[in-house]
Every structure is written in C-alpha cells, then in structure tokens.
Amino acid sequence: MKPLIITTHESAGLLNGSITQLRRDVKPSRKQRRFLSVDLLMKSGLDYVTRDGAQFIHPLGGPLTFIKCSFHPNDKLYCRETWAELQSPPNLQDNTTDTGLYIYKSDEPSNPLCYGSWFRRYSWHSPATMPRDAARIFLEVVNVRVERTGEKWQWVYDVKLIKQP
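Structure (tokenized):
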C-alpha cells in the first residue's frame, strides 16, 4: 500500500463521491532534469503511454524520454490529509494527553469539534507527517493516463474508494 498526499478539497470530494480522478503533474526525475527541464517537457510531444510510464518526444529533436508514473492500475493507496490528534485533559497518572483519535481538516464545516474554542485548540499537522494508522481514505487506482492541460502534462489517475484493508 502506497501513501498519497491529498488536499483538503480532494479529501472532501473523495468522501462525498464528487471526485473520481486525481491529477498530478508529470515531472522528470532528478537524473533526467540534466537533459530535460520541466519547461522543455511542457513543449514535448507524447509518443506513447505504457503501464509503467510515458514516452515523450524531445522538442529539439533529441533522444526520447521515458518518465515513470508513481501509481499503476490496481495499486492500493492510503491518503494522507491535514489532520490533528484529539487531545484529552492531562492524565495525572502517566502525564499524557494523547487519545489515539484524529480529526481531519476537510471535516471542519461538519465536525462540531472544529468550532469555537475547540477549533483554536488543535494544531493542524501537515499531511506528510500523518501516521498510517490515522488514514481513513483508501483508494484503488483503476486507470492511468497522460493528458495535456494548458501548458502542463499531467498524470490522470481514475480512482475508486475502497474499504480499509
């Protein structure tokens, strides 16, 4: 199972069913950036797409560049989102406040714990620091493709919500 960082908007959309696609920019690896900058990639043509990535035609007639995609069909993902841990009053016996329960920023409008003085008590944490056991959104990648949107090439991941494995 692979981690995927998502925004608050994506989190809310995935949970209510309004989002079934995720888009991420196609970027060359660090090694490939010596030969192909992100700007040059945007001017490149798409040659073909495979299960593992996409082949791009260099705009200046140079060698073809293969860029791997992060996720493949049938991959299972757990989503990392902006989160906070519920705090309880300090336990005088072991001096801890951790409850092991989490709240999520995307629930802010509907979660009564996020209002008033409660909301100010929580310090929201970056999705990159979210522990795996705090994940509540699990996805399966159904299809992967590459699309050009404006000046950018993007991976388009068709996903479906799955139950916690």
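The mean pLDDT is 78. The chain is about 10% helix and 40% strand.
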